[in-house]
Write a structure and sequence with these properties.
Blueprint (H helix, E strand, L loop, with lengths): L4 H24 L1 H22 L2 H11 L6 H17 L3 H10 L2 H12 L54
Helix pairs in contact: 1-2, 2-4, 3-4, 4-5
Length: about 170
């Protein structure tokens, strides 16, 4: 069974944020700590308003159309993510947001993300020009590329589920 770090991160993040509040509160005092939290919230709102949620919609539509969201979309999308992290109260999320806003870190994230994209030109997708064949040609790959004639379903009359619908 493969261990995913995401559930552990989601469970431990609030504890780390609380610890950050305690450490910063002891060092700076309550009023300055609350002022820093409010300042990061306002900065996140300004950044989010400037970038807008539209950039995430644009990335999603390009992905659905079979095009890989380009590098020109990465900067505004990362700014939206940083803005959302700034809005969340806590100093650890603010630190991650500030790291995301640094261009060399953003380039590192782009390199990590670009390797994981697989662009498949869907039959109904819009493609403005000839698309390069970017399928993985590695023989040890877990990607299986099937054409429409390779895979189809035909109902089997002797199946116990034949003629049944969800909820029956």
């Amino acid at each position: 069974m493969r261990f995913s770090i995401l559930p552990a991160f989601i469970l431990l993040l609030p504890l780390a944020e609380i610890a950050g509040f305690v450490v910063v509160g002891r060092a700076l005092g309550l009023a300055l700590t609350l002022a820093l939290v409010m300042l990061s919230f306002v900065a996140g709102m300004i950044l989010l308003r400037r970038q807008g949620i539209g950039i995430l919609r644009r990335m999603s539509s390009e992905g659905r159309n079979g095009m890989m969201p380009g590098r020109e979309l990465l900067r505004p999308a990362m700014n939206v993510i940083a803005a959302l992290l700034l809005i969340i109260p806590g100093f650890l999320s603010d630190l991650i947001a500030i790291l995301i806003l640094i261009p060399p870190v953003r380039d590192l994230v782009w390199r990590a993300i670009a390797r994981r994209f697989v662009v498949v030109n869907a039959k109904g997708g819009y493609s403005p020009g000839p698309q390069p064949d970017v399928r993985d040609r590695n023989p040890n790959s877990k990607v299986v590329d099937l054409d429409e004639e390779d895979y189809h379903r035909e109902p089997k009359p002797n199946s116990p589920w034949f003629g049944k619908h969800l909820g029956d």
